[in-house]
Design goal:
Layout (H helix, E strand, L loop, with lengths): L16 H11 L4 H6 L3 H17 L4 H14 L3 H13 L4 H8 L7 H15 L6 H9 L4 H24 L13
Length: about 180
Amino acid sequence: MPRIPVHSMDTAPEQTRPALEKLQKKMGKLLNIHAEMAHSPVVLAAYTGMQDAIATHGSFDAATREAIALTVGAVDHCDYCQAAHTLGGKAAGLGEEQMVAIRGGRAAGDDKLDALLDVVREAAGRTGEVEDRTWKQAVDAGWSEAELTEAFAHLAVNLFTNYFNHYVRTDLDVPRAPAVS
């Protein structure tokens, strides 16, 4: 059960409505996570600011972004984000088996992507620490210093949403992600 109520567009604080309208249009509906973030304009602004920075300056394609989100959501045991990003992953062209493998910490069938996800998985699970060997494997797989640096922004926004969902106990309002075997 959520710790704070889910706002509607009518009940959300006036200051958060423009951001909520934009998110509702982008997602096709007002998601519970966004409607709960609306309780605090600073929380919603921090989230949308990170998302806007990634959209404006990021270089990763949608499939890579969703794979990172699935990886971090699995490390953080965030059912909400794993479910939401399974939908996003499907829209970005990731297959269900591939997404289950990513969430399970297994190879996704793309050596370059797998090397990046290993970096992200370690960073998420070890408070930012990544073994030199893991970092070198990503560089050897073809990831540039700029891309490995950018991965941190994706890690950060996903940690933000994962922790927020745990913090307020967001109810799932999208289909549950398939089980990881």
